[in-house]
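Researcher: Let's do a round of design. I'm pasting the structure tokens now; please hold your answer until I've finished.
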């Protein structure tokens, strides 16, 4: 995807994984409202990625969509080269913010989780986050910001989420290590933990299964499930200058679930 206009060289640039749908899409659109350009990834849904690029352009910002499977670390060197080319297209050589959001779910009990399922979750939710960040941080400005995405399920346990919830807990720990080791470059790292959000995630179960939707709502202080628009603006806001002193924190964005 190419850009029609010359980019504003002073605008901030974010990289968001999984920006084509759900929480990532809302993040890209809310960053655009704040004048932040995005380089975002999609996995297979190019049409929805193109739609997001169109909406960002309408909002007066720039977006470039790149295909990437974040579960395949072997692709990251090539991806970093694509990022460098995209930055040049935006009139920049470095970017400002990284949001590690891409992911898929699994719905197996602890007893029935297969090694393949465990490896797949680990690859996309932990190894990909670790190694992609490692690969991209050299392209980030000093003073840049990282937001990782965890889940309420890292704090409380529910059936059939053992692998997913515990790997998300590992991402929370990794976030604190990022904050420590990237501090010499004044890079802050925080982790957002959404509650159940009505997206396509997990087969759209929170959105489409009335029973699950009701159960989540009944366990949530504010009495409903979350929407992508409950989370995207928080991530975009957290990346703004006003919140630059927040570092190494886990922020749950869940309307008060299981409190
Ligand atoms: N929804 C919830 O209830 C919930 C709750 C807590 C935490 N989260 C977390 O929030 C994040 C986003 O979830 P969501 O609900 O927005 O999901 P979603 O609506 O299913 O969207 C997932 C996004 O990630 C991309 N993606 C999936 N697998 C990928 C891979 N292997 N490589 C690269 N991109 C990939 C998808 O790209 P394509 O469009 O190309 O498929 C899509 O853009 C995830 O980390 C999830 O664990 C979600």
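Researcher: That's everything. Go ahead.
Model: Designed sequence:
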């Amino acid at each position: 995807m190419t850009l029609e206009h010359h980019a504003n060289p002073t605008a901030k640039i974010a990289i968001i994984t999984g920006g084509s749908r759900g929480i990532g899409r809302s993040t890209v659109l809310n960053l655009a409202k704040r004048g932040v350009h995005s380089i975002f990834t999609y996995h297979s849904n190019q049409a929805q990625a193109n739609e997001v690029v169109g909406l960002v352009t309408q909002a007066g910002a720039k977006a470039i969509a790149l295909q990437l499977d974040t579960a395949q670390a072997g692709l990251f060197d090539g991806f970093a080269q694509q990022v460098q080319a995209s930055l040049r297209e935006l009139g920049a050589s470095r970017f400002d913010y990284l949001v590690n959001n891409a992911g898929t779910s699994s719905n197996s009990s602890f007893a029935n989780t297969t090694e393949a399922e465990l490896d797949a979750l680990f690859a996309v939710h932990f190894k990909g986050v670790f190694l992609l960040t490692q690969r991209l941080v050299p392209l980030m400005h000093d003073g840049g910001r990282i937001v990782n995405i965890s889940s309420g399920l890292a704090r409380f346990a529910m059936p059939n989420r053992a692998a997913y919830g515990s790997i998300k807990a590992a991402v929370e720990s990794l976030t604190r290590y990022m904050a420590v080791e990237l501090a010499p470059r004044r890079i802050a790292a925080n982790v957002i933990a959404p509650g159940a959000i009505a997206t396509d995630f997990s087969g759209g179960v929170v959105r489409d299964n009335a029973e699950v939707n009701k159960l989540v709502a009944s366990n949530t202080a504010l009495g409903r499930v979350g929407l992508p628009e409950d989370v995207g603006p928080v991530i975009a806001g957290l990346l703004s200058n006003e919140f630059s002193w927040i570092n190494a924190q886990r922020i749950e964005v869940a309307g008060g679930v299981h409190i």
